Queue: 3 jobs
Job 1
Amino acid sequence: MHRNQEAPLVEIRGLTVDFDGVRALHGIDLAIARGEAVGIVGESGCGKSVTWLAALGLLPARARVSGSVRLQGRELLGVPPAVLDEVRGRRIAMIFQDPASALNPVIRLGRQVGEALALHRGLGGAAIRAEARRLFELVGIPDASRRLDAYPHELSGGQNQRVMIAMALAGNPDLLVADEPTTALDATIQAQILDLLTLVRRETGMALVLISHDLGVIAETSDRVCVMYAGRMVEAGPAEAVFDEPLHPYAQGLLAALPPLDGPRRRLDPIPGTVPPPGNLPPGCSFAPRCPRRVPACDHVVPALSEKVPGWAAACIRAHGPAMADRRAVGA
């Protein structure tokens, strides 16, 4: 959901995914506006990465995908592979969480970035090396000319992640999907990568989708946040509002489990239990067995994601508008 009056850049409607007859995604609705930064959060197994792998046609053949994924009104689901090849990297690029497995260990980095430049922008010869060097400099890789001739094992994890970002930017994409881009990095390098993504987004005008289980990462970089649980979207709204006063008990639980950075120390309140496997979801609300606000109706009703105030939605029969809603211009 979004409140931008312009047509969305990417619009996902009713997206479902089944693996061997077991449903993993239950009708995801999401729209991304041009230049917008959207964070997607949730525990492992909630469907964050599967949503975008399905949207870009990157799931294995055994996956059954249905619904609609539109890029500026053009349907992407079910189109021939040649059409997706034009979209992936050129219009929508994706950064994966482990650069060590995404980069080819026996090919020099400049050549790997150069392949993307040749494929998506038709460059050749000296123009490829010049543009690859520019991209390396853009993402903050020191001594860029020399690093073009290096192999992945000669760089640190943080520098390899910067190479992945450079490769993603090679096609000048309209949307960059970053899937846990800072998971394997220490806190200092993580902050540098997040600052880099924010800077690139502002300079190029591209939209950004940041997938993470780290709420701090999302809070620093996103205009809007979507919370997923057990293959469903359970809350979506302006990032500042959601982090100040989340509506859904799951989002409340995620924030309650975070240690405070200032003030007196307090006992953390972890969410009991774990995310249920897709093939063994409870009846009614999937979060009900872990929810402190559970009532009998929660065991029978699958709540729909509905607006509680304009631009801010939650999937909970007990969620209402925030206490401060009358004093907050939500989505303005």
Job 2
Amino acid sequence: MSRSIAFLLCIAALATGSAASAAGEFSTLEERMTDAEFRAAGLDRLTADELANLNAWLARRNLSTRPAPAGGSQGFKPEGLLGDSGDRARIVSRATSNQDEIGVGTTIALENGQSWRVTDGNLSLSGGLAGRTVTIEPALLGSWLLKVEGYNRSLRATRVR
């Protein structure tokens, strides 16, 4: 398991929070995780200095008290049955990024602060994307469909930010 994956697992574990972090105190990864979780994340392979640096970095950024990103949590996959809790709403905003071609891997930035990455489909745009209205609608199994004003085609997308 690479260190970047281990780090992401640590961030996910910290996002769940604990009573100590809710009170403003920081507890180390070793205190927050079970031995099995610690090993599964690959943290047991870090040197003592690397682990201390990671704990210090997390303490400085105390993720449990950080505000949500601009644009709210709309667009992130919910935890409900089949990935659809029924509370997902349609998102409409204007594009700020300018591309003539949109395809798998393309990231589209919106005025509302959100960014979406295309996961399936492609679209050739006449005149570019910037300033066009982009509509993102919930689809089956927790997925999202991205539509660009003036084009009769939907692209599957996932929210990046």
Job 3
Amino acid sequence: MTLTLRYMRLDDVPEVAKIDRQSFSMPWSEQSYRYEVGEAPYSYMTVLEETRADNASGLRGLLHRMQGASTIQVQRHIVGYGGLWSIADEAHISTIATHPKHRGRGYGALLLAAMVQKSIALHAAYVVLEVRMSNTIAQNLYLKYGFRKVMIKPSYYHDNGEDAYDMRLDLEDEAAVRHFKARYAEISHRFDFIDDYTNKPHPRQSQMLKR
């Protein structure tokens, strides 16, 4: 099994939107994701993809062998995703979720850490996000990576009028950055993953250079 952290592509949108619907009471539309991936100049959407290579067995494996084809089947699934906006000196984590079947494995922490690392590469001064006041699990994760509760945004969530915490990580605070980098080193060593996101330019930037 291989994990790859990479930029979200247009063909990922249906799978990502499905996870979104399974995760949130106010999911984004597929149209919103397509805009974020294909058009928004400030958006750095990412996915965590799991690749498995399995030997085809039974009748399927027999048919493959009779046809002289490989019995190795490669399956790819998105196990989590995240959204990052970079506007001026602000990096804003717009969304983050893990597939319900893959929760509790640390993938959410890996996505969060990767987006903060990307924010550093983009020379952001701080990272901001909003979280429901009732979502203590997410809050504890953000606190672990150095975020602090800055203010309360009243009635932020339109589905039930729940308040949100505005949480921020100051990237100009050397102590906060050292704390984050220590956590990032831990999560990076925990997972053996291919990183095609944090220090690589967005594909749209490569296209602009070719023009």
